[in-house]
Amino acid sequence: MGRRKLEIIMKEITALSAIAVAKKIKERQVSVKEVLEAQLATISEREALYNSYITVMEEEALKQAISVQEQIDKGVLIDSPLAGVPIAIKDNIYIKGIRTTCGSKVLENFVPSFDAAVIERLKKAGAIIIGKVNLDEFAMGGTTKTSYFGETKNPWNISHTPGGSSGGSASAVAAEEAFVSLGTDTGGSIRQPAAFCGLVGFKPTYGTVPSYGLIPFALSLDQIGPLARNISDAVAVLEVISGYDSRDFTSIRKKKYSYS
Q: Which of 4, 55, 100, 190 has the CB geometry, 3.0–4.6 Å to 183, for a possible disulfide?
């Protein structure tokens, strides 16, 4: 991709909503690879200032982009609202073969052997997992200042905190370093950073989203949920990641109720 075209895509594409960019991909206005390259360029340009990411999965994301584009071309992912959309993942959620640190030196080199349930579902929906984002160490905090990998900055004002513990999740989306992200919420760890960074953050009802593959702070309270720049994007992510999982004893089945 030429530099001029990349600059145009960076300016016009990375500021769009997740749903809007997925629509452009399906309409062949832009390719998955072009969107990914623009997103990676934005991360490269801004990350030194904001420190949203612990690990950027550039090589892995490119492989995903090629595979997803092939599926879209075959019409396989035509109904997915996230096909080709780069998404950032809080670094206490397992991704197979990618280190999962929880923002701690203790787990600095820990590499899971399987994907969390939410990662399986995002991959199936054609979302591009672009990297693991910063958090307070072991998700204990409200500022993202306790991470071993350094403090994350609020993109609206770098002298202010992005909140926590999902500060990296919020900062990445607010800085246009990801279209959407996943965070985790025990007592406000999605909702507070979303508010601090001007985003939509949602803590699902307990048991709605499976926690299999999450390193919990408090299992009886923790929930994985979306951070996005608008409600529609947050709903799109939630619809993909929610639902019963037999590997998670906290996961609930939907029941049919009779009102007669």
A: 190
**Residue 176, phi-psi category: left (phi > 0), alpha (psi -120 to 50), beta (remainder):** left
Sign, CA dihedral 154-171-213-44, equals negative
Active-site residue (options: 52, 80, 90, 166): 90
| Strands lying side by side in the sheet with 86-90 | 53-56, 128-133, 86-90, 180-185, 223-228, 200-201
Burial class (CB in 10 A: 0-12, 13-18, 19+), 238: middle
CB atoms within 10 A of CB 243: 15
What are the tens digits of pLDDT across the range 102-158?
Answer: 999 999 999 999 999 999 999 999 999 999 999 999 999 999 999 999 999 999 999
Q: Is 260 a catalytic residue?
A: no
Q: What is the pTM of this model?
A: 0.94
Decide: 201 and 190 in contact? Cβ < 8 Å: yes
Strand pairing class (180-185; 86-90): parallel
Structure token pair of residue 140:
């204990």
Nearest to 151 by CA among 137, 138, 130, 140: 137
d(CA 163, CA 183): 12
Q: pLDDT band at 182, cuts 50/70/90?
A: very high
Alpha helices by DSSP H, listed for 148-223, are: 167-174, 191-196
- To the query of whether residue 203 is one of the catalytic residues in this protein, the response is no
Q: Confirm whether 90 is a catalytic residue.
A: yes
**Active-site position among 189, 211, 242, 251:** 189
Q: Looking at this protein, which amino acid is placed at residue 8?
A: I
